[in-house]
Specification:
single chain, 132 residues, alpha+beta, Alpha-Beta Plaits, three-stranded antiparallel sheet, 6 helices, 3 strands, globular
């Protein structure tokens, strides 16, 4: 039986977690010919997410059909971000989209509007420091 992450992850006990992400339906994560493009894409995406979240990557391994990560949750880092920094990080991850579904440019006014919503900032700060 599985246990939800909210009950499994406790930063008071430890901040370090080993996670595994597997491909479904026996799909292969890397191409059969061993070309490095997908591995490089995963590496670059991981670096990008590492800059956004308050979670540090201690190590990782890219296997044929799954990934292993050693992650450290840093709640204190997230608590030190300004409200504008929280909004900027979230918009880097989920940029607003127009009616044509294309990403819109994030303006200072838009960031300020989001940062003025204290409930949104608190929930977003928590999400940016969560494994969920």
């Amino acid at each position: 039986m599985t246990i939800s992450r909210s009950r499994l992850v406790d930063t008071e006990v430890t901040r370090w977690y080993h996670t595994i992400s597997r491909c479904v339906r026996r799909a292969m994560l890397l191409s059969e010919d061993g070309s490095p493009e997908r591995k490089d894409w995963i590496d670059n995406r991981l670096k990008e997410l590492n800059r956004i979240f308050a979670i540090s990557v201690g190590g990782f391994s890219i296997m044929d059909n799954h990934l292993h990560f050693l992650l450290r949750i840093d709640v204190e880092q997230a608590s030190q971000w300004s409200v504008l920094e929280v909004a900027r990080r979230w918009m880097a991850l989920y940029p607003p989209r127009g009616s044509d579904r294309k990403p819109l440019k994030v303006t200072d006014e838009f960031l300020k509007l989001k940062a003025d919503n204290a409930a949104w900032v608190a929930a977003t700060r928590k999400r940016l420091s969560s494994l969920g």
